[in-house]
Design goal:
Radius of gyration of chain A: 12 Å
Organism (chains A, B): Streptomyces cinnabarinus
Protein name (chains A, B): SCO4226 family nickel-binding protein
CATH topology of chain A: Alpha-Beta Plaits
Largest sheet of chain A: 4 strands, antiparallel
Helix content of chain A: 25-40%
CATH class of chain A: Alpha Beta
Largest interface: A-B, 26 and 26 residues
Shape of chain A: globular
Pfam families (chains A, B): SCO4226-like
Structural class of chain A: alpha+beta
Number of helices of chain A: 3
Oligomer: homodimer
Strand order of the largest sheet of chain A: 2-3-1-4
Distance between the termini of chain A: 17 Å
Chain lengths: ~80, ~80
């Protein structure tokens, strides 16, 4: 399993409830998707959302977003190093 | 205090030791800088580093990077929403 950071742009005006609902929808399907969603952070002003997850591949993280009804991340990077 | 996510590009080849040393240097000056560095994640392949911090302003986070001898982040966004 690899840790991934993905970034969504264009999410201007996202609310705390929307972020929480999106995260809960992702967590609800994480077992079948094989991807664990750890955290997400959002800036409603610039419309940027960062998601931190663990999964077998970037493609699996993309598929998990899709299954959860989320928008497709604009960027995704494996982040094998962390402090 | 606001939470911030900043992003560094061009860090290809960064090692676990370099990430840890950079984070420790930032933590060492966080009291005087008034910025708390929570976590950092790195992708040595694309050269992307994400830093999560808490501080009074984006400018304070920039100054804290500078004090710690780190490169200036290419992007920084307040992330008031988190799950």
């Amino acid at each position: 399993m690899t840790r991934f950071m993905d970034v969504h742009h264009g999410m201007q005006g996202i609310t705390a409830d929307q972020l929480r609902e999106g995260h809960e929808a992702a967590v609800a399907i994480e077992k079948e998707a094989g991807v664990h969603f750890e955290h997400a952070w959002a800036d409603p002003e610039s419309g940027t959302v960062y998601c931190l997850s663990e999964g077998p591949s970037a493609e699996a993280v993309h598929r998990a977003h899709e299954h959860a009804g989320a928008t497709r991340p604009d960027e995704i990077h494996a982040v094998p190093l962390a402090v």
